[in-house]
Input
Amino acid sequence: MDCGQLISRNAAQCPNPKCMSEYPRGIYCRVCTSSVEYLSEYLAESQPFPVGQALTKGRGYSLVGYHPECVQRVLQVPDNLACADCGMPVTKLWNWESLFSGKDLDGPCPECGKPHLIAGPITRGPIGLGSVTYGPLMYCYGCKLPILLWHKLEIQSFGIGEESDLYHDFCLAKKFYLEERHHSLLESKKAERDAVQATSSGGCLSLLLIGTLIILLLTSVRFG
Output
């Protein structure tokens, strides 16, 4: 997908010596699939795209990729966001590209020194058996991008006393939507299989009845 070289289904990387991509079949955007990339091949709306066109984090097996426009949508700093102490516009400090690269992420205000201008600390609770405090910097379990002050934080809990995952509200909603769609597709395929099996069973029964009638007819002719 990066260079157009034909490739075996079993090849681990592109055979083109000028390419050698370790992701020859492309990569899925983590914002679009929101931690359910293992379902992406079943979902028509989730399409892989070349790694060369993606913003990426990590290396090798753990490589996480994004559409640039998806990163911009998630990390675009609101125009009206400013330091609560001195009024310094945050857009003068960071843009979405610098937030993605993580350089000087959520550092102190250069005017007054106030720390954590765009992330935490955030207290959420009660969850399970008590309240939980996060921050100053949190990352969404779905898209692996930071959860910042203008995002709505969602928590997926796995039961009292068990671990919880943090999400952007839109990432958790996307995750639930894709999982529900996947389950619906599985149920639809199961219903189709059941219908085919029922039709096949009915056809076998009809053939059995026809065969029995033929045998009875031949027997009656023989002894009639």
Summary: The helical segments are 30-33, 68-75, 96-101, 169-223.
